[in-house]
Design brief:
With 366 residues, the protein is an alpha/beta fold. It has 2 domains: 78 residues, no CATH class; 213 residues, TIM Barrel, CATH 3.20.20. 38% of the residues lie in helices and 12% in strands. It is built from 11 helices and 9 strands. Strands 1, 2, 3, 4, 5, 6, 7, 8 and 9 form a 9-stranded parallel β-sheet that branches. Helix 5 links the parallel strand 1 and strand 2. Helix 7 packs across helix 8.
Length: 366
Amino acid sequence: MDAGAKLASLLIFCLFSNTLFMSSAWAADNYVTLEQPPKTEAVFDLSEYLALPEQTMPEKPEWLGPVISVMPESKSLEKTYPMIDSEHTWQPIIAPILLAPESVPNVLSTPALTEPDKVSLDKIDLMATKKFVDEHPKPPKIAILIDDLGYNRRGMEASLALPIEVALAILPETPYAHQTATRAQAQLRTTLLHAPMENQRELKLGPGGLYAKMSEQELKAVLIKDLEGLPGIQGANNHMGSLLTTKPESMKWVMEVLKERALFFIDSLTSPDSVAEKTAQEYGLKTVRRDVFLDNIRTEKAIDRQFSRLLKLARRHGSALAIGHPYPETMSYLQHRLVNLQQDGVHLVALSELLALPTPSGTAKK
């Protein structure tokens, strides 16, 4: 080997040795062994405090070169952790769940109600329930009035066999008038005077008739006699009357008599020009007018058609009133039809439930 090669090899060796020395020095400055000092009562045992296994470093890390052990300063642990007695093993503290004594009020709970408060809340709940029930849609109502009673026993017996809600209008001074009124009164059934009134076709009225040519004294005298001849009468309606019900003066006299006795009036509406209902409202009487005649045609098919019309009007307006007569066809139809009325979603009610007092504007509630 020539001198140049030897010199180059020497320089390389020196550089390598210098690099190796510097690496060892750097490792000595930066590497701190985790080897634990011997246990004494004055030294804190970190592994027991943390309850972790002891950790050791490799004796000779190959990547750091020669290792120069460096002991940590004796005060380093004292500065970092407080000195405790190593004989006492650390244990977690479990805090019990404390329950508030019954004597201590719970501010987050609902305060106890006094007896008056409970009563008032019960009233509020009752009012809310009642309001809810009241707001629920009510089923349509129908009422039925049977006219022209008093002339024969068969009509009397058949009408008294109908449901108690069906009202009866009795003609004055007829053979079975008093008996019909008495038996209806015993049933607590609504009964009316079926007051005969003059019609435009000049048909005979029978006893106790009211005519347009009568003076006030004559008309009132006849009407009072008709009312007093029937026990338990609660109101009146017109029999025929297509002429008299169009006479405002005559209707005023009728309503004056009824008002004195606190009776109601039903307008049978035998004329589209009737002023009977309007006059009754003006005098403050409870009143309502007829919606349907059931049996102008005395066949079961025709009666059923009119009854269907009655139900339709009741659903549309909330209530409707029908007038029928004690014909055998009508009695037979009503006896079986009214039994199955619930399936139509309509209630049969007493006539009094359809009566209305006049409103301040002068129109009746319907």
